[in-house]
Amino acid sequence: MLWQRLITGPLLIALVLGVVWLDAGMDAQATAWGLPPGVVLLGFAAVLSVLIAREITAFLRGAGLPASPTASALAALLGLLGVMGSTMFATNVGVAGAVATALTLMLVVALLRMAHTRDPKGSLMLAGGTLLAGVYGGVLLGFWMLVRLEHSPWMLVGAILVTKSCDIGAYFTGRAIGRHKMIPWLSPKKTWEGLAGGVLTATLLGAGLAHYASTHASGADRIPWWIGAIGGALVAVIGQAGDLAESSFKRDSGLKDSGNLLPGMGGVLDVLDSPLFAGPVVYWLLRIAVPA
User: 122 in the Ramachandran plot: left (φ > 0), alpha (ψ -120 to 50) or beta?
Assistant: First the structure.
């Protein structure tokens, strides 16, 4: 309901801004303790990993597939910690080994869960579902933490804001002039006109935020406006792909929302479906165009 969204939305924004403010303020203390930046955000991401994994489990069970919330949560945490742990190695071989180990442990968790039930039926689907939870709830979130290691947390806020601005632009443009359905068999309300409006909104906001950062930010947070514009367009398109991916999960499972944790909005995955897919794009764009 709209009134629930009007309450949940500001509270959610306040929570995120509070976590980011605390994380930024902890940078000096983390350095003094010999820890990398982003300690507070890492803890927040770990909580999100578990919540996302549990919602993936609900999708799997809704589709009639075997799934374990415990195994999914462990896989998600392994994915997140595997990505973060890879940054401790100085060589490419060490990085690859850390990520490969995390993926292997996800599979081991699924197999141990199967052994615990003493029933091999559905073990293939259990293994696949556990790996899905590990990627969604861990690896994709890990990309945002990689960005945090080389940039301030406010860079993450800006990138997420640009990604979500596509949803807003697409919604209003689609309602105003939307005529041509984009994928009616998956998401009947989405139109090509709405997508164009969303991409344009994200492109303009990305360029605007980048221009502001180029004059007010410092260090690696200073990026050219055209990088912001390109990034805005890219995360808009990829973010919509993330939204459609979740829509396919909902249709397969028969669920309207991924959860009910956020009144008026659904679950955590309903809010983070587009930013999760946008994370790798943000990371690689900044890595290639603006080396830290």
Answer: left
Q: What angle do CA 166, 14, 208 make, to 5 degrees?
A: 40
CA distances from 1 to 6, 8, 144, 250, 262 (A): 9, 11, 30, 19, 11
CB neighbours of residue 47 within 10 Å: 10
Query: pTM score, two decimals?
Result: 0.92
CA 3 to chain centre: 26
pLDDT tens string for the chain (292 positions)? 667 877 888 888 899 889 999 998 888 788 778 778 889 999 999 999 999 999 999 999 999 999 999 999 999 999 999 999 898 887 889 889 988 999 999 999 988 888 877 777 778 899 999 999 999 999 999 999 999 999 989 999 999 999 999 999 998 999 899 889 988 888 888 999 999 999 999 999 999 999 998 887 877 888 899 999 999 999 999 999 999 999 999 999 999 989 888 888 889 999 999 999 999 999 999 988 875 5
Domain boundaries, the chain: 36-150, 152-292
Separation CA 189–CA 232 (nearest Å): 23
Q: How far apart are CA 228 and CA 210, in angstroms?
A: 5
CA atoms within 13 A on the CB side of 143: 20
3-class DSSP assignment, residue 109:
helix
Q: How many CB atoms lie within 10 A of CB 161?
A: 15
First-last CA distance in the chain: 43
Q: Is 39 left (phi over 0), alpha (psi -120 to 50) or beta?
A: alpha
